[in-house]
């Protein structure tokens, strides 16, 4: 998969003209944030790069389903948070419409499935099949993320089908931070919740990812890859900005570091990104290869000057 993804990125970037400035109409780049800290972090990186190049980032906070409809309908241009295979049905819809380019796989090594805290593991829960025998300890609740998220839909479908005997359990939907606050408050009480990497929760909480959920979340504990999508018309009209997004590839340690600054230190996403970029100029060279400012000047030099100041 990695070889194929790399080949696809090379083919795409080769097709995009080097040192080709975009039209003034490309000056505002619209993208969305579903309220997940990992996407907030990568969106922040994109925002710093775009602003340094003379573009204006316009980030809308939209739930996953609404965000995909916005991309499909032309209200946004780019989305950095296409988690696969969890969001396969949204991709199927976009692919059927024929209006979307997959610019790159921007992250590998991610995972996303149900997990329990230390108290849950000590109760003997290590697999989806262990949950129902411990229903009372968990108060019959599974803590999810924001309403409409594909992972929540998978949990609700599991409950509706009475899989693993969970038919009388309840899905509690809330935002990421509310869910994690609940887990933190319940340090001595078993809690089952959605967990994923990259995320600093993996350092802050003693987490046990549950086996047995391959049919619901995919193999390897919900092993996932994250992709950057963009509207075909936008890619054709704004090849310089599209080239930038096609070359922005992250890794789990980098995202963990950014997310930790946002969640633990209270840093603004752009401030965290600016600090990381100043400390990692090699990333700027790779991401800005062949990319210019909006008015056609060398892009890497402009970004380095902006983050150094």
Automatic annotation (TrEMBL):
Residues 28-279 form the ABC-type glycine betaine transport system substrate-binding domain. GO terms for molecular function: choline binding; transmembrane transporter activity. The keyword Signal applies. GO terms for biological process: choline transport. One of its GO terms (cellular component) is ATP-binding cassette (ABC) transporter complex. Residues 1-20 form the signal peptide. The keyword Cell membrane does not apply. Keywords: Signal. Gene3D superfamilies: Glycine betaine-binding periplasmic protein, domain 2 (3.40.190.100), Periplasmic binding protein-like II (3.40.190.10). Transmembrane segments: none annotated. Coiled coil: none annotated. This is Choline ABC transporter substrate-binding protein. It comes from Paracoccus sediminis. The lineage of its organism: Bacteria, Pseudomonadati, Pseudomonadota, Alphaproteobacteria, Rhodobacterales.
């Amino acid at each position: 998969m990695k070889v194929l993804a790399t080949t696809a990125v090379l083919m795409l970037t080769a097709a995009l003209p080097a040192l080709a400035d975009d039209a003034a109409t490309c000056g505002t780049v619209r993208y969305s944030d579903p309220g997940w800290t990992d996407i907030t972090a990568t969106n922040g990186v994109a925002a710093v790069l775009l602003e340094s190049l003379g573009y204006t980032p316009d980030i809308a906070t939209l739930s996953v389903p609404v965000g995909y409809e916005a991309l499909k309908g032309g209200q946004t241009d780019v989305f950095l948070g296409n988690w696969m295979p969890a969001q396969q049905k949204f991709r199927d819809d976009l692919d059927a419409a024929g209006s979307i380019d997959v610019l790159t796989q921007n992250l590998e090594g991610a995972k996303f499935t149900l997990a329990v805290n230390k108290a849950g593991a000590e109760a003997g829960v290590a697999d989806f099949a262990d949950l129902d025998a411990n229903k009372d300890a968990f108060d019959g609740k599974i803590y999810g993320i924001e309403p409409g998220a594909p992972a929540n839909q998978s949990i609700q479908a599991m409950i509706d089908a009475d899989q693993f005997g969970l038919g009388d359990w309840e899905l509690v939907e809330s935002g990421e931070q509310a869910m994690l606050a609940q887990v933190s408050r319940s340090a001595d009480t078993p809690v089952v919740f959605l967990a994923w990497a990259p995320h600093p929760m993996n350092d802050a909480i003693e987490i046990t990812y549950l086996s047995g959920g391959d049919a619901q979340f995919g193999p390897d504990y919900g092993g996932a890859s994250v992709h950057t999508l963009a509207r075909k018309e936008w890619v054709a009209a704004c090849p310089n900005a599209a080239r930038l997004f096609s070359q922005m590839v992250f890794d789990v340690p980098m995202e963990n570091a950014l997310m930790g600054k946002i969640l633990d230190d209270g840093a603004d996403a752009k401030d965290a990104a600016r600090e990381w970029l100043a400390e990692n100029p090699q990333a700027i060279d790779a991401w800005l290869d062949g990319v210019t400012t909006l008015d056609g000047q060398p892009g890497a030099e402009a970004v380095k000057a902006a983050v150094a100041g």
